[in-house]
Amino acid sequence: MISQQETDQLNELGSNIKHDFLASIVVFLVALPLCMGIAIASGVPVAAGLISGIVGGLVVGTLAGCPLQVSGPAAGLTVIVYEVVQRFGLEMLGTIVLIAGLLQAVAGILKLGQWFRAVSPAVIKGMLAGIGVLIFASQFHVMVDDKPKGSGLQNLITIPQAIWKGLAIPELNGREDRIFRTEMLRTVGDLRRRQVNLHEQVAERVPHPFDARERESSDSFGELASLELADLASEQAQITQDLIAVNQRLQECEKDSVPSAKSTKINEAAALAIRQSGAAAIALQQNNIAEILPLQAEATTSLELLISHQKNHHLAAYLGILTIAVILLWQGFAPKPLKVVPAPLIAVVLATLIAALLAVPVLYVEIPNNLWSEVRFPSLSVLNGAPWVAVFQAGLMIAVVASAETLLCATAVDQMHQGRRTRYDRELFAQGVGNVVCGFLGALPLTGVIVRSSANVQAGARTRVSAILHGLWLLIFVAGLAFVLRLIPTASLAAILVYTGYKLVNPKSIRDLGKYGRGEVAIYAATVSTIVITDLLTGVLVGIGLAAAKLLYTFSHLATELAHEPGSRKVTLSLQGAATFVRLPVLARELEKVPARAELHIEFSELDYIDHACLDLLMNWAKQHESTGGKLVLDWESLHARFNPVKAKNGGSASESVVRPDESVNESTAP
Fold first, then answer.
1. Which of 90, 204, 313, 453 is the most exposed place for a label (fewest CB within 10 A)?
2. 13: left (phi over 0), alpha (psi -120 to 50) or beta
3. Which positions, given as ranges, span the membrane (predicted)?
């Protein structure tokens, strides 16, 4: 017979499962567009973001020390990942993420979780704002089907150019022409994806000596003449044939129309792509090792040029604006029961439907039918030529930023609910294991994400089951419904990130920091500016350095003001700041200015701290001053109760908490 306690436990379990199931659906709907958008912002295939979202749910969700926190690819890491991919190549991303994960896991084992929280709020908010500015600036270009520029500052400065492209007069072609242009964009986009994958496969088989002398002296270089690259050469030849077919279709479509400047550029770009792809195929067939990698890069670049000439920036801009408008309208005017459906999902669905119904010729999400084909395991040939010092530094940067963002997010999640509190070391270890798995699969690094986590709590999640299930739903959707994702316009996902970047800046945080003084605002501004002008690491280090300098100044600065009351023996000494042994000479100098036989009143309401050395100075001076007929008026009990409240609370006298003044000083104490 089941006891009442067991019945209650079963009822609670059933209630938890119900709430967690419903919450997992909400989190899945929030995570799906964000995983894809963050991948695009990071300069990696969409599949890499989706894989990270799946790992964040299934792996990290199972091990997490913060059960209601949801992990996945984060906007806060897009800038770092983009720089890593540009510097080391996509094939090295997995290795760097793997290193970051190992560092996190070791830090969790060594119980360093709490230390990652020891960062000034001004630096954290400045870091998030700087990342927000960078995301906003880069994705503004993607929102008009353009490519981000070389740096964050360039992206910011060239936003007017992106606006100008978006405001171009639309080409009102017929539906059949729009369908054809859309098909051509998809076809060439798929060819570019195949070319990128082929380039990576070639890079895995061909070593990367750093200079000509190393290449000539390499023992393996001579053996490469007999390297078997027939399968890769066959794939390159097939890409060339597909390009020829694309060029023929383009010419057939335009043979009855008057050639325009745009069509001429498209035809020239197609011819160039065919030549470059053909040359790359010949190099592979002939085992021309010296030319293989450069020609692969040129073939990829020529396909990107062909895509750029087919883009319709104004149509992409309209879809992006529509997406942002829907987000704002849904958040502002949707009925409360319906707000459980995330605004970004509504916006993406609506933009996708309009793009499909009108056959809008813009860029769409590129994702393979088989997600497993996008998995990139670390390659020994690539690792052999890696600059390991720089690679380790990149891994350390990702580990530090991801850990700080995760644990700060966990703290915020704890404030949203009354359930189990975060176990920081376990959470850090879980994040490390998740990033090890992501690195092994060549996916994006992951962190705890506040948007998904807050959605999880607000949707009524009770346990970690919700986060785990959201990863399962991502896996099922991506594995079985990849064709649906290919209907989503890239501009719509970029628009979500433009809005996300704006929210990360959060001007309200400046007002909140202002309550704690101009110094905090200055640290925030310096962190943001340095991140935008240089890079994330430099910006964070500058912020931490300024915060440390401010802390040093706070604990070493003492402002004093000695005021004489006319016609009276009363003298007031006001203290502001920190009275420590470092500033003891300043305090001693002020005390020496007090006239003999004066009645000195010390005002310490604006004093932040006083140490034993300064208290001892005051007591010794009081003895000497009273011996000459003077008087010190100081509320010792209030002073000790403020700066040593533990002993005051336990009933000890104020004088006992630091040092006992003699009877004469106590008698001079004001009531």
1. 204
2. alpha
3. 21-41, 47-68, 88-110, 122-144, 315-333, 345-365, 386-408, 428-451, 472-502, 522-548
Higher pLDDT: 564 or 656? It is 564
Please tell me the distance from the alpha carbon of residue 427 to that of residue 61, in angstroms, as a whole number: 10
The whole-number average pLDDT for the span 624-651 is 72
- With pLDDT > 70 as the criterion, what percentage of the chain qualifies? 87
Residues 25 and 31: their CA atoms lie apart, in Å, by: 10
Comparison of pLDDT for 388 and 367, the residue scoring more: 388
**Partners of 427 in beta bridges:** none
Encoded amino acid at 84, one letter: V
SS3 305: helix
pLDDT band at 31 (very low <50, low <70, confident <90, very high): confident
Helix extents (H) in 67-172: 78-88, 90-109, 121-142, 152-157, 159-166
pLDDT tens sequence across 68-98: 999 999 877 888 898 898 888 888 899 999 9
User: 442, 84 in Cβ contact below 8 A?
Assistant: no
**For residue 603, what are its two tokens?**
């005002």
Residue whose entry in the numeric block shows the structure tokens 């994040």: 431
- 364: which strand partners? 489
CA–chain centroid gap for 623, Å, is 60
Structure tokens at 428: 């850090």
User: Could you write out the DSSP letters of every residue in 493-523?
Assistant: HHHHHHHHHHHHH-THHHHHHHTT-HHHHHH
d(CA 600, CA 513): 37
pLDDT class of 443 with cuts at 50, 70, 90: very high
3-state SS record for 441-499: CCCCCCEECHHHHHHHHHCCCCCCHHHHHHHHHHHHHHHHCHHHHCCCEHHHHHHHHHH
Closest CA to 495 of 507, 486, 503: 503
In three-state secondary structure terms, 570 is strand
Q: What is the share, in percent, of the chain residues with pLDDT greater than 90?
A: 30
What pLDDT is stored for residue 343 in this prediction? 84
* Eight-state DSSP code of residue 346: H
In words, the CATH class of domain 558-667 is: alpha beta
> Position 277: which residue type?
S
What pLDDT, in 10s, does the model give residues 264-301? 888 899 999 999 999 999 988 888 878 888 999 899 99
CA distance 475 to 479: 6
The reported pLDDT for the residue numbered 665 is 43
Cβ atoms of 359 and 45 closer than 8 Å: no
Domain coordinates in residue numbering, the chain: 12-146+398-504, 175-310, 558-667
